[in-house]
Design goal:
Radius of gyration: 12 Å
Number of helices: 1
Strand order of the largest sheet: 1-2-3
Largest sheet: 3 strands, antiparallel
Shape: globular
Structural class: alpha+beta
Helix content: 40-55%
Strand content: 15-25%
Oligomer: single chain
Length: about 60
Amino acid sequence: MSKDTSLKPDDFPVEVDDQKLKTQKGKPVATAETEELADQLAERLNEHAYQEEHDRWSA
């Protein structure tokens, strides 16, 4: 039995705590090598999720 670890729409926005990325509910998502990289990853993930949500509503 495999565990589904993919991010869901209600996991966003992804937040940063030092080098750790977490869902808005505090569930750990990933750990980056630096805090700067964690910030960049969270920003990209959040932008992508926003764009997907926007595309869903505009279709």
